[in-house]
Fold this protein.
Amino acid sequence: MSEFISRFQLQQPQPGSYSTNNHHAAVLIPIICRPEPTLLLTRRSDNLRKHAGQVAFPGGKADPQDCSLIETALREAQEEVAIPASAVQVLGQLAPLDSSSGFQVTPIVGLVPDNIVFHANEDEVADWFEIPLREALSLSRYYSLDIHRGGINHRIYLSWYESQFIWGLTAAIIRRLAQQVSI
């Protein structure tokens, strides 16, 4: 874990970076501090209107009462999988990414003690699982797929872990984190 922390560097937004998405959201990248650290991911409920059944990080749109996107990510993680905000050691954030649903999503990286008991909010989360951090951060496990939609070329990333299909924004976030900490 200390190696990961020492290699994690905050990434400042790039000058001139432009987002067409003006709605803000944040996700927590929860790294569970086990002897072999893991990354916590959820599978969204099949009853949700958007992104039903997809693998995701705990997170969601910013509420007006949220003081920051860090607060948004921590609030959503508490609501979705019962991670107390006070238990998360926030390391920093990655640069925001644009989602296909019109949100600019800011990933917040946080360490979570291994004694937290996760409880899925059944309205939002069908299940949760952990992937070993070392495995998640292996760049070779991500495959790119170029698609053309709405007159624009997009590159999406795909990966698998056991029976879980990780793709889209979630895979892009993990891949970006892997690039951030790789030497």
Observations:
- The longest helix spans residues 168-181.
